[in-house]
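User:
Note these tokens:
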Amino acid sequence: MNKSELLELLNRLGLRPSRRLGQNFLLDPNMLDSLVRIANVERGESILEIGPGTGLLTERLLAAGCRLTAVELDHRLAAYLRDERFAGVDGFRLIEADACRVDFDELLGDEPFRCIANLPYSCSSQLLASLSSMRNRPREIYVLLQKEMADRLTAEVGTKDYGVLTVRLGLMYAITILKRIPRDVFFPPPEVVSAYVRMSLRSAVPDLELMGRVSRIAGMAFSQRRKKTSRMLEGQYGLDRVLSVFSSLGLSEDVRADGITPAQYVGLGRALV
């Protein structure tokens, strides 16, 4: 599908790309083929796609032989995918819903699955948080993200991009930026450069209860990242207790949020119950 064909389809559906919904359609066929090839889709495996749009990536995933669950919010695109483009196609299941409100555990059950998607940039962090909070987390996630978001996910301790998302997602996934994606392969072009990111589930991850505590502590610490973390945690846990735990973890009482490693945040989560 080229740009003119896309515009004709959108016009027929009475649809104008929505910035609020993050509707930037990836059109370049070579880029689409590359994304699927890099993800090494296997015949018969279960794949989740969030925001299929007009189905260009969807088509390639299905051609690779996977069983695909697609979640689409826009009712016009959902009707097009369900009733026209993929009507009667084996292995295709469409869920018309807001992915930010979907219970993915209920939707996908206990079967191993992967997620491959051009995520809506406006809610990518929320969607990644939802996927990583599942009981049955995706074993791999291949997603298009804003390059800025990708930089945050892969940031090193002590850098300006290191933050809550780095800690939360980095504890569960090994995250790699695979390639930069230029603006001109999308319509309409996004205002930012994009990146294709692979997230591979680690063999050992904190359980959901511990991960919840780690997330709360990191959230408090980074809420005012220039302040001493001990002061940010003092109100919740008491300063003497916080400093005792810091000492046991080899942390200075003056350390800021971006000076604490993900492993040390886990230590804080275990000690500050």
The chain has two domains: 3-201, 208-271.
